[in-house]
């Protein structure tokens, strides 16, 4: 980490965009402990808690994005960082950024430090709105309407590889045949098979036996 000498006229009222850019770049570096970063930021700029770069991002914004909980706490408690300041790029507060980048431990810390959970960004979204956007939609089961089958690991259903999926995937064989699944049962055994109200659909693979009672799409 290069220690170029900061401006001689840097004070606790510093608003240098150049300092802001240096602070943001420094916080984003990997492999450096939060305590070391804190010492360097303090040396680099006397007003490191409030100085922003050309996009309005402060050291707190980037620390929240990178999951640096210790540095976030230090900036707020020791350097007077504005916990609810919005950047000029998206209108994100540090809390917005921590949620957007999945840094839940930092989001929790920011809330404990007094972050406002209802500040809106330029899209009129709060940090909680961003968290809700990433959640899977709620699906309500109806015994009357047609149903589909999703899975995270398909090898036990005889539909492909056994790699885990980040999100559940739709089993295409049922959809392509216009089958609405009414009931699914899984038994651990040496073979797999689909059985239906009328005829068996397929003989499948080793790993499980699955019985599906279905009716055709209306």
UniProtKB/TrEMBL annotation:
Entry superkingdom: Eukaryota
SMART domains: ANK
PROSITE patterns, sorted: ANK_REP_REGION, ANK_REPEAT
Repeat (ANK) residue spans along the chain: 55-88, 90-122
Pfam families: Ank
Keywords: ANK repeat, Repeat
Keyword Repeat: yes
Protein name: Uncharacterized protein
UniProt lineage: Eukaryota, Metazoa, Ecdysozoa, Arthropoda, Hexapoda
